[in-house]
Specification:
Number of helices: 3
CATH class: Mainly Beta
Oligomer: single chain
Structural class: alpha+beta
Distance between the termini: 63 Å
């Protein structure tokens, strides 16, 4: 009888915890450490997002961004930032939102970068303390005309 109760209790615990997700666990570096390890550190506006489902269940998200401020990296005002949505450390990139982006160059590219939540990438509002610690940007770029997006359109194909 006791064995039956233990088995039922164990099943209830398993069933009740099936939908529970666990928080992302990152060992964040300081903003200056992440700056040193990144190829790109910018504040940029996400203007468009494309999702590309993968066979393993992950989703590769490519966001077209207009760069406003640059602490490190290219002076190209138009970039593509890629992140993979899979597991508990998902990074959402929402069109119309400004982000502080810490990125790594994808295959040496100067206009395609990868990032994820554990690299400290977050909305500019959430990253106000990071931006303050980074100090003045090296460059501030002017807004880009929509027609110039044709220059990097091939990245999305």
């Amino acid at each position: 009888m006791k064995t039956t109760r233990v088995a039922i209790f164990s099943m209830l615990v398993l069933i009740s915890s099936a939908g529970v997700s666990f928080a992302c666990s990152c060992e964040f570096k300081t903003p200056l450490e992440q700056l040193a390890e990144s190829d790109l550190v910018v504040v940029a506006l996400v203007v468009a997002v494309e999702e590309h489902p993968q066979e393993n269940g992950a989703i590769v998200v490519r966001a077209r961004v207009e760069v406003a401020d640059v602490w490190k990296g290219t002076q190209n005002p138009l970039l593509v930032v890629e992140t993979t949505v899979f597991g508990s450390c998902d990074l959402s990139l929402v069109p119309g939102t400004k982000y502080l982006i810490y990125g790594l160059s994808a295959n040496g590219s100067e206009d395609l970068f990868t990032t994820h939540e554990c690299m400290r990438t977050r909305t500019a509002d959430e990253a106000a303390a990071d931006i303050q610690q980074l100090g003045d940007p090296l460059y501030t770029l002017t807004p880009v005309e929509q027609a110039t997006w044709g220059a990097i359109k091939s990245i999305f194909r």
